[in-house]
Amino acid sequence: LAEGRAWCSKELSMFLCLLQAAAGILCYVGAYVFITYDDYDHFFEDVYTLIPAVIIIAVGTLLFIIGLIGCCATIRESRCGLATFVIILLLVFITEVVVVVLGYIYRAKVEDEVDHSIQKVYNRYNGTNPDAASRAIDYVQRQLRCCGIHNYSDWESTVWFKQTKNNSVPLSCCKAALSNCTGSLTRPMDLYSEGCEALVVKKLQEIMMYVIWAALAFAAIQV
Fold this sequence. Notes:
The radius of gyration is 24 Å and the shape is elongated. The model is unreliable at 1-8 (pLDDT under 50). The protein is mainly α. It has six helices and no strands. The chain has two domains: 1-77; 114-203, Cd81 Antigen, Extracellular Domain, Chain: A. The chain crosses the membrane at residues 12-35, 47-70, 82-106. It is found in: Membrane.
């Protein structure tokens, strides 16, 4: 009987260590989603998209607390503490299932949201660094190596392009390897040829998948 208790205690201790590690990973994933979303929030107006990330951070924090409860219960061999530990783990499992469902729901909405908002963002571009919309577009075009909504010609219909009257696109459209690019449309070979809309959609869907996979992975561990 003593050997059985020792074995159970060892197994539970290993699980608690895994639990603490999972708590850290879940919090990291949630924080990563928040930080990355901040760079793309102009292209996605539905703030409720962050709900899965909020939940997963809350779950990670809760798991850390649960780990401490489990450690105390194991040390004291408290049946009540262990029962509470199991019940809370069950609630966490249900929450993770909810995160997965919400993640898939919001992932499916990404394309429609970006399609609805991206034209507005490009129309607000004024080329000045302090302007939030301008910074967002320049960041996305450099980071994703794209230009315009569908291609660089989309810039011709923007207010900024018509006001500048210099037949050029922002320098963020220039290929990174070129140092003498001026953004002129007379040299389209110097510009990124791919549009940003499809790449923004892909990036946001990838971000949401991180949350889904993190929740699924830990749910599988619990099972």
